[in-house]
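Field reference: sequence -> structure
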Amino acid sequence: MTTPEAPSAAPFGRALCAMVTPFTQAGALDRDGAQALADRLVSEGCDGLVLSGTTGESPTTTDAEKEELVRAVREAVGQRASIVAGVGTADTRHTVELARTAEKAGADGLLVVAPYYSRPPQDAVEAHFREVADATGLPVVLYDIPGRTGTRVAPETVIRLAGHPRIVAVKDCSHDFLGAQRVIGATGLAYYAGCDEHNLALYAVGGAGYVSTVSNVIPRHLRSVLDAFDGGHTAAAARLQQQATPLIELMMAAGLPGAVTAKAVLHGRGLPAGPVRAPLRPAGPEAADRLLAACEALTAG
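Structure field:
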């Protein structure tokens, strides 16, 4: 019987925000807004920032904008927080190019989603990740979100990929809690919850922390959940997680994408966000009011 490797420490910190990409009202990248938002998130408890992910509207930002965003955020936060750059695309060659550019721009790690639309089989998915991981010296976070990509990164595939020296973590949006626990138990990969409702649950079974969309608007509260758990105050951690549940549900499970809901709350609170890019559309007034009210109720408590 083989003994599982000891779980690795969180390589990018525990509390990571899947940061929105602020745009100007004219629709251009808002460099100043991105720097201001990044500084606020780090000041309020984020150990790391994940740029150009799903919440960062990566499908509608250009390669040049992705590079500029990494450079701008690095300038704003310095070494106070890790920066993980989303570089995943449906094309292995393009993903490799983005990975190399992100490394030169100052990223600390790479977020690589499973190739989408073409729905490659598992051997091709594995080969894709290995080629990207071989292309730079940066550590890689596998991003498993089959609801968007159409392709699962199967637990067996993740376990094989864990042997690669630069594949160090997973952002888990699979909704397969059993599969996540299997991989945590069998590997030294750092498992980050990618669905905010799983932040505490995954952490409690050996996860590394979270990569959170909701952290754009309540970074301090979500950090407090992990802090309470680490302090041995498990009932308090559960209570804090439950307090955030109404906002998590409105932001992540009420029919609007997280980029839309996060930007609606940020805008309502006077924080950098700007519009979303088409085909996304902004939240309507009623939805925006509900989101803002839920956020205000939580932060006022």
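Note: The chain has a mean pLDDT of 95.
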